[in-house]
Design a protein that fits this description.
With 181 residues, the chain is α/β, with parallel strands linked by helices. It is 20% helix and 14% strand. The strands form two sheets. Strands 1, 3, 5, 6 and 7 form a five-stranded mixed sheet that branches.
Length: 181
């Protein structure tokens, strides 16, 4: 004789458990700094994405991160560190996907009240991507991952994007996963 477990209803979230309105908060922050107009994100009518030529389980995938290499002389960069502009980086960088680098995110603004930087997989999921390769969900990783600076004007970012594209093409990537922090 088999019995089934009684049905349980999922608990309702608290009234104040809502998504963080980060885009509006960023606009308000720029106004509070005295810029005179809210922050505007670059956006386009046409998006330059291209369908994969092969299924993902046969594709070579690049990982692009905004996390910064640890800089011992740049102050506190550990999990939960306050915002640290000294830890910023200004040039696209690349490193091997064979090892796990020491990357940090103290140089970017994120909600430090509701999240931490204790788990590197939340901002640099190289290990999770390796597991996806081992499970056959991704064909292969590129031999390098790439770092994208975050402190740029749109004009500077365009140059960074050109460099990232060149490096991904050098690595024969069919797709790229961009993980902003």
């Amino acid at each position: 004789m088999t019995t089934s477990a009684p049905e349980t209803k999922p608990a309702a979230a608290a009234e104040d458990d809502v998504p963080i309105a980060y885009m509006q908060r960023t606009r308000d922050y720029y106004l509070a700094l005295g810029y005179g107009n809210p922050y505007r994100w670059a956006h386009f009518v046409d998006v330059p994405f291209t369908p994969l030529r092969a299924p993902l389980d046969r594709a070579r995938v690049a990982l692009i991160t905004t996390a910064a290499p640890f800089q011992p002389d740049a102050g506190d960069q550990g999990p939960g560190a306050p915002y640290n502009a000294r830890a910023k980086f200004y040039k696209v960088y690349s490193d091997s996907t064979d090892a796990t680098p020491d990357l940090r995110i103290s140089h970017v603004g994120y909600d430090r009240k509701h999240t931490t930087a204790e788990d590197i997989n939340t901002y640099f999921p190289l290990q999770r991507m390796r597991e996806a390769v081992a499970a056959g969900r991704i064909g292969a990783l590129t031999p390098r991952f790439h770092g994208a600076p975050t402190n740029r004007s749109f004009r500077e970012t365009e140059g960074d994007l050109d460099e990232l594209l060149r490096r991904c093409q050098e690595d024969r990537a069919a797709a790229a996963v961009l993980v902003p922090s």
